[in-house]
Each structure stands twice: as structure tokens, then as C-alpha cells.
Amino acid sequence: MQKTAKEHQKQVKKVDSTAGVISKMTRSAHLKQVKKVARAVTVKATTSRANQ
Description:
Order of helices and strands: H
Largest sheet: none
Number of domains: 1
Helix content: over 70%
Radius of gyration: 22 Å
Oligomer: single chain
């Protein structure tokens, strides 16, 4: 089965946008994780300073 060039481009665009969505999701998830860790570190540093 041979696809026309137009059909092939459509397919590529679809794959591209899906990859874009996935990378956006992983990026935002990663940022959330980093923020969470940063917050935890800040809290620990503050409490340990208060205890001294």
C-alpha cells in the first residue's frame, strides 16, 4: 500500500503533535517535581536553622 505525499505529511503532523503534547506533559510534571523538592529542602533548612 502506497500513501500519497499529502497523506504521509498528515501522519507526520499527527505524530509530531502527539510527541509535543507528551514532552509538554513531562516537562510540566518534572517542573512540579523540582518545585516540590525545592520546597521540601527549604522547609528542612528553615526548621534545622530554627532548632539550632
